[in-house]
């Protein structure tokens, strides 16, 4: 039981920091750790990770929203589009060999981490709000389609893809991008968790409780820090967290 608690708590630290700082899906950290160190079946591990993601993303979204760093209108548009096209992507994935779909989320995590360190997002909220609302709405739909197809196809990377597109394509400043990303991830993770539990049954209850608690705690801490930090500091911290998490997941996958 002690080993189980330690593994779940450490996995929750990584997942919570990734969620609170960068809107990263908990599945990218928790799943490989539960599989590698506890020998848990992959389907069960993903279900626990998605359940952990729900509350962590929700509390992060609340914190960002409370600090006015959340775009609900465009977030809802993108969320519905992502959900619909994730199903289409899942169908396409069923036609492709598993070997073609590995490692996407980890590579995306490392790539974004390096990007935030080398080329930080310094867009201001004023310049973000100056963009044409109609154009942003259309772009949200198009980007939601792309994210949904990729997430359904490779099974991971939703939070990272959203953060990349929100900052790089839609011109969001970093805090609003993360806040909107975790807002969307709350509902996508809930959908995924319910589906996993309905199909595969309830997972290991203690692992579920430990992971949910740890992820929620550290996501709350990270989100509070992120909303108080300056853009320069937030970019560096977010970049470092992503690089460390990406490297750790690669190491864990190597140990499997």
SSE topology:
Elements: H1 2-22, H2 27-38, H3 42-66, H4 72-93, H5 104-118, H6 125-129, H7 133-154, H8 158-168, H9 174-200, H10 205-228, H11 231-255
Helix pairs in contact: 1-2, 1-3, 1-10, 1-11, 2-3, 2-11, 3-9, 3-10, 4-7, 4-9, 5-8, 5-11, 7-8, 8-9
Question: What does this 3D model show about the protein?
Answer:
- This protein has about 260 residues and is mostly helical.
- The protein has helices at about 1-20, 25-40, 40-65, 70-95, 105-120, 125-130, 135-155, 160-170, 175-200, 205-230, 230-255.
- The longest helix is centred in the C-terminal third of the chain and has 27 residues, at about 175-200.
- It is globular.
Quick recap:
With 256 residues, the chain is mostly helical. It contains eleven helices and no strands.
Structural features:
256 residues; globular
How many β-strands, per DSSP? 0
Question: What is the mean predicted local confidence, pLDDT?
Answer: 83
N-end to C-end Cα span: 21 Å
Low-confidence parts: 98-102
Number of domains: 1
The helix/strand series, from N terminus to C terminus, equals HHHHHHHHHHH
Query: In percent terms, what proportion of residues is strand?
Result: under 5%
Calculate Rg over CA atoms: 17 Å
How many helices? The count is 11
**Biggest sheet details:** none
Helix content: over 70%
Structural class: mainly alpha
Overall spatial form: globular
